[in-house]
Amino acid sequence: MTGRQNILDAVALKKQFRLKSSQTAPTGMLTAVDNVSLELSRGETLGIAGESGCGKSTLGKMLAGLIKPDSGTVRYLGSPIHEMSPSDHKVFRRQTQMIFQDPFSSLNPRMRVGDIIAEPLLVSGSGSSTSRRSEVEAIMTTVGLTAEQYNRFPHEFSGGQRQRIGIARALATSPGIVIADEPVSSLDISIQAQIINLLQSMKSAYNLSLVIISHDLSVLRHICDRVSVMYLGAMIESGAASDLFRRCLHPYTEALISAIPGMRTREKGQKNFLLNDDIPSPLAIPSGCRFHPRCRYVRDRCRHEAPALDEKNVGHHAACHFSSEIYGV
Questions:
Q1: Is the dihedral of CA 54, 58, 62, 67 positive or negative?
Q2: Nearest-angstrom CA–CA distance, 298 and 251
Q3: CA angle, corner 6, sides to 249 and 307, nearest 5?
Q4: SS3 content of the chain, % helix, strand, coil (to 5)
Q5: Rounded distance, CA 214 to CA 74, Å?
Q6: Could you report the per-residue pLDDT of 199-213, keeping only the tens digit for each?
Q7: What is the pLDDT of residues 46-81, one digit of tens each?
Q8: Distance between CA atoms of residues 119 and 131, nearest Å
Q9: Which string of DSSP letters, residue by residue, matches 203-267?
């Protein structure tokens, strides 16, 4: 990342949750995020990929300051966010906003949509009620809604319109960073492209740095500058999107890309690598390489020794003992 200014970075983040025992599961420590580090440079779009349950959403909430890590540090413009003064933390909260996964549950059904969008401005004490309304109406128009819809309630809108409301709420404070958690996963396929295109146009219009969290690599391929891939709470590959999709360096990433219709990850004539097994429980992460129970290239070393996330090519990191041999690095 030499020559770029990091607006947000994370160092060795770890987060665990203690689960209470039930009829179906014993008490245990669930490792949601395990020693994850990443960087977001100003004006960049970073994708975070992985299957459901891999820790993507927990990581996103830690980056937004909504969850405090058990260990590790999130830094905004070089300053640890949990060591900031109240005034500096208020600036961080204005500058870092989140779009949540479910547009049906992330909006208060008892509030009018104009008030929902205006709430961040109200909390931050920005402007008068009249000026806030003018700002909100302008933002609604920008995201494809109308000022006449200000007094309507969320149930009067479609899923795509509700996600536009969520985007408008995130943009209300003129942030520098927007973290979007699965922004299109709950929407019809016909609406997904509209929301992705809206995010791209908003990035340009508002000079945003974006973090896009998604299990769908086809979405990240379309919109991201860099992509980081998570598996069972850990980062297992990271690199420029163009490099990662042209030649991935981890078998898990290979399997995810193989699931994209029309994508070819291996040499001509070789079959794509599809995962059939379920992801192991984060309550019992496998020893050695955490992916080894599902890996078609597994060797004895993989079962006993955890690979480091090493730089295999310039700016391209992977946690695999045999990347060089498998992918010809």
A1: negative
A2: 10
A3: 30
A4: 35, 25, 40
A5: 21
A6: 999 999 999 999 999
A7: 999 998 889 999 999 999 999 999 999 999 999 999
A8: 13
A9: HHHHT-EEEEEES-HHHHHHH-SEEEEEETTEEEEEEEHHHHHHS--SHHHHHHHHTSTT---S-
Instruction: Label residue 24 by pLDDT band (50, 70, 90).
Output: low
pLDDT in tens, 110-150: 999 999 999 988 887 777 788 889 999 999 999 999 999 99
Instruction: Using alpha carbons, select from 39, 33, 40 the residue that is nearest to residue 67.
Output: 33
Alpha carbons 185 and 211: distance in angstroms, whole number:
15
Q: What is the DSSP letter of 125?
A: T
Diameter over CA atoms, the chain = 67
17 strand-pairing partners: 30
Residue written as token pair 């005034």: 87
Q: Rounded mean pLDDT of 291-307?
A: 94
Asked if 180 and 212 count as a contact pair (C-beta separation under 8 A), the reply is yes
Residue with tokens 């179906």: 24
Nearest in space to 327 (alpha carbons), one of 262, 243, 220 = 243
If phi > 0 it is left, if psi is from -120 to 50 it is alpha, else beta; for residue 3 that is left
Structure tokens at 260: 């994209």
**What is the token pair recorded at 166?**
């969520």
54: three-class secondary structure by DSSP: coil
Q: Which residue has the tokens 């004895």?
A: 300
Rounded Cα gap, residues 76 and 88, in angstroms: 10
Neighbours of 292 (CB within 10 A): 23
